[in-house]
């Protein structure tokens, strides 16, 4: 019997030797402006070419402003990064590239799947930890380091140790106002911030099967936040339906033939995982982080915990440090934590479904005076679809800023930053110290919770409205 990981791994295995990492073939290598330049420079110095330029797909997203995109960019470092990737793309013959003014430009883990460049059964790497996102398509997807980026560019292969298997089974169905982002945060807290280390997670069960593809992307995206290498979900009819309409996906007889293989991408019944956890989806409620890692979260109707309530001394120390940085006291109601900024977007929650959910909360309402709120679509296609549906008008009417696609306020690598000491309710994936700007304070939430929080001016469950 085989797991989904086994099937994906073995179908890409080039060489395996005892005591050494396996050599895997890579179907798609994704690159962006931040983590690829050093690798290209090394190739130049060694006078090497790309092994398969047709399998390298590039996009500009991290450093790109989401308002004024006139070139040269005001930030010289960002301009240099964009210019370097544009030159590398041209010099090395990268055939698939979504530049800053391309209509499909967007966050790398949003743009690539919606173009059909990532397919079930693919092996996918990128110099970005949230490459795990593509595991929602039953793809073997994971982030790699700079030296590994160079190795893949030069050889279209990578050395990797095979992780162990961890099944996360979610029974029942998620309740009203509970999203896959809440589910992801719940799982991270359940496993612990390093509970997935050394594992590839496979999400399964009725609650997972009921999720839309966009919700599955959110869940797989967050697998890395508990230390897992991959976040896999078996292919099913929803997967095939999602892929079928994408520009780069196979068509006609080719799609029909591929579909037969794709539907086999699931763990065999009775397979014994190295570890398995099960829980009922009814246990999950809308959540928000109070600390400085995604596992430090609590229900929106709960309280900031007392560090002394943690039995593990490392968790207790981490909680003490987090509360000091966040400026919070034990016992404070989560719903009483006032926020200054709201961000809806990122590779975690920048898809059309996310903006529909947030817009349903914001319709005919205004955000609280003094709150700065940004809605940043994950791609040009998402932006145009939202505008076609009139969602942009709802955001703007409520008081949000409607921006161009990009990573934006997910990380402090572009002009969209949270000022020192201020709080942001963010639909992104990380709440590390300084992640959204130097000495900024981040509270991770779902898009619907972010919208509700913008209206109330404090962390709030959508059901409160």
Draw up the topology in text.
Layout: H1 4-10, E1 13-15, E2 22-25, E3 28-31, H2 37-46, E4 56-59, H3 76-92, E5 96-98, H4 108-114, E6 123-126, E7 140-143, H5 146-155, E8 157-160, E9 164-171, H6 180-191, E10 199-204, H7 206-209, H8 213-221, E11 230-233, H9 237-244, H10 252-262, E12 275-280, E13 287-289, E14 297-299, H11 313-326, E15 341-344, H12 346-349, H13 352-362, E16 372-375, H14 380-388, H15 391-398, E17 401-402, E18 423-426, E19 441-444, H16 447-456
Parallel strand pairs: 3-4, 3-6, 4-5, 6-7, 9-10, 9-12, 10-11, 15-16, 15-18, 16-17, 18-19
Antiparallel strand pairs: 1-2, 2-8, 13-14
Describe the structure.
This protein has 465 residues and is α/β, with parallel strands linked by helices. It has three domains: 4-160, 2-Layer Sandwich (Aconitase, domain 3), CATH 3.30.499.10; 164-283, Aconitase, Domain 2; 288-464, Aconitase, domain 3, CATH 3.30.499. 32% of the residues lie in helices and 17% in strands. The chain has helices at residues 4-10, 37-46, 76-92, 108-114, 146-155, 180-191, 206-209, 213-221, 237-244, 252-262, 313-326, 346-349, 352-362, 380-388, 391-398, 447-456; strands spanning 13-15, 22-25, 28-31, 56-59, 96-98, 123-126, 140-143, 157-160, 164-171, 199-204, 230-233, 275-280, 287-289, 297-299, 341-344, 372-375, 401-402, 423-426, 441-444. Strand 9 (164-171), helix 6 and strand 10 form a beta-alpha-beta unit. The longest helix is centred in the first third of the chain and has 17 residues, at 76-92.
